[in-house]
Amino acid sequence: MVDGTPQSDRPRLAVRLTEDAERHVRAGHPWIFDRSILSITGDGEPGDLAIIFDAKRKFVAVGLYDPDSPIRIKVLRRGTPTPIDASFWRGRFAAAVERRSELATSAATTGYRLLHGENDGLPGLIIDRYADVAVVKLYSAAWVPHLDEILGALEAVLEPTIGAPATVVLRLARNLDEPLADLGFHDGQILQGELADPVVIFRENGLRFEADVIAGQKTGFFLDQRDNRARVRDRSSGRRVLDVFSASGGFSVSAAAGGATSVHSVDISSGALAAAQRNMALNADRPTVAAARHETILGDAMDIMSELVDDGRRYDMVIVDPPSFASRQSQRDGALRMYRRLLAEAVRLVDDRGMLVAASCSSRITTDEFFDVLLDAVDDAERSLFKPESYGHAVDHPVSFGEGAYLNATFAKVRSAPTSRTIES
To answer: What is the pTM of this model?
Structure first.
């Protein structure tokens, strides 16, 4: 366990909101911004309980207070009051495990998101599981005083159901590194158990992958594309595959497992490409993976794709899964332009009647906007799409409010002849 102040000792802050903010909270929104607070009793410390009252002093909601974040209060409960104690935490974890019951009992998949922050009712808290290791990622200092209770509740729920993790690792959002250092916390800290190797091997859809739970991106692996990787695997037999923004090779390995004849992984990080090669090697006992010709290409995605276009290269499947280009509203227009450029080059690389897999991971870009940009890119490339299929979030990445939806993925076949934005069914 870690040192933490018990919830029962935390001060309560009485809060009044603007009418608009109160309306959003009642409707289920989990965030209260600093500009939405009309009054608050006291200064408040990270992790204090903030109780929101309406103009008639009736309870509206309760949340965790974070004075250093523009999202000043993370809402835990609305509607009717309830104690925020060990029983409350256990209830939230139990609901999260039940939502993922099929995954949690699967031997084929031992890497998945156990708790998805706001969308599982605990804003700013992420818990991913890799085999016997749980990675707790904090996006708010408000969780620090409650860590001890959180870990106790997590163990109490998991032990009799799917089994408690042997090791718990703490990961911190970058803005928390310095503030929490004075409290004795650091990114990659082991909170419970031991970890002989920071690289943990887990399974996804029967395939083996590595996750660096101490220093890897996010919590060690990009878990949210699991279902789309399975779809790529199902569609890869006999195909030449280009995986752009390949990271550690999730799509690349899945394509090889599905029978791709060749897989080219493109990324700007040499470390990511080395991990992709290791992940491919982890699955080399599968005949399809062993037979696939795997090549890594180091460089900027746009530059590499342009060079491949100029060289006349074509692929039967092109996968484009870039990082988020719009973490803020002000970046939306630039992100849309970048998507259009990338996707136009990607479409040019798809052979006639081949497949494009295009993904976006920004909540600032809606599904409709992303699809419109894709159609613009297809027009730019003087090609046409047919039989498009769109997919969103997997069961372990549920969506409970508007901004919680960030993942869009479109699978579509590409034809050489342009049809003026007409999509053929």
So the answer is: 0.93
